Prior knowledge:
By secondary structure, this protein is mostly beta strands.
Amino acid sequence: MLHETWKENHVLKQVEVTHTNADKFKVSDMLTVGKVYDVVNETEEYYQIIDNSGLVGGYYKTYFKEV
Length: 67
């Protein structure tokens, strides 16, 4: 399964968090504004990154800008 190897995969790009103002979900515990994260997988709407918990999480692209 592809998602089981994401933490060991190479980094696709880096993104910086611009805000954590979420409409539905609380993301401020897992993302820090101004911090740069490594993208391990990308879809049309989401980035999968290694977040503050140390695990891979999927977040809307609206929270980020590319570095």
